[in-house]
Automatic annotation (TrEMBL):
The keyword Lipid biosynthesis does not apply. The chain crosses the membrane at residues 12-33. PANTHER family: CHLOROPLAST PROCESSING PEPTIDASE, SIGNAL PEPTIDASE I. It is found in: Membrane. GO terms for cellular component: membrane. Its EC number is 3.4.21.89. This is Signal peptidase I. InterPro entries: LexA/Signal_pep-like_sf, Pept_S26A_signal_pept_1, Pept_S26A_signal_pept_1_CS, Pept_S26A_signal_pept_1_Lys-AS, Pept_S26A_signal_pept_1_Ser-AS, Peptidase_S26. Residues 14-172 form the Peptidase S26 domain. The active site is at residues 43, 86. SUPFAM superfamilies: LexA/Signal peptidase.
Length: 190
């Protein structure tokens, strides 16, 4: 009887150790490596639809530099409890100009085959038609792919790099859209 009790206690302890180990690994991965997010709203259509589930890498930018065209998740400059998903358009020191609904970075027209609507501007927003905007150091200029429905740097100016949560690298729901998120910009302009 004593032997059976020892066996049962040993078995239960093994299960508890496994559960604690797996739980600890999950917490470490979630807090420091990657985070699941759900897209809410239409600001990134047609690239992402509201309800899509994505994985955000918290470590990508520890190993490589930010690139124009990357899709990122960051804390809203207006309310840090809210997370936004947008595309990087300009890097620190770049000059962004939106003129006649077209986007220029460092006087080069950005070919944006991932958007379906012209780039509009907001009354009272940060960006004015044809007026160059220089991105401060340690900040990035971001915009949603659905320009008419996106609150982004056109409205609230560039965002601090420190507010980045990470780079969106994978969509895991819905099933018909599962896959890696690819940067659509040519490597020569990233």
């Amino acid at each position: 009887m004593l032997n059976i009790t020892k066996t049962i206690i040993g078995f239960v302890m093994d299960i508890l150790e496994t559960v604690v180990f797996v739980g600890s690994m999950f917490i470490v991965v979630y807090l420091f490596i990657l985070t699941p997010n759900q897209v809410k709203g239409a600001s990134m259509e047609p690239t992402f639809d509201s309800g899509d589930y994505i994985l955000t890498s918290r470590v990508t930018y520890k190993f490589r530099r930010l690139e124009r065209g990357d899709v990122v998740v960051f804390k809203s400059p207006k309310n840090p409890d809210i997370e936004y998903i947008k595309r990087i358009i300009g890097l620190p020191g770049d000059v962004v100009t939106i003129k006649n609904s077209q986007v220029f970075v460092n006087n080069n027209l950005v070919s944006e085959n991932y958007i379906f609507a012209a780039t509009n501007l907001w009354d009272g927003g940060c960006i004015k038609d044809g007026v160059p905007y220089t991105i401060p150091l340690d900040e990035i200029f971001v915009m949603g792919d659905n320009r008419p429905r996106s609150s982004d740097s056109r409205e609230f100016c560039s965002v601090p790099v420190q507010s980045l949560i990470g780079q969106v690298f994978y969509r895991y729901f819905p099933a018909n859209k599962i896959g890696t998120v690819i940067n659509p910009l040519p490597s020569s302009i990233r």
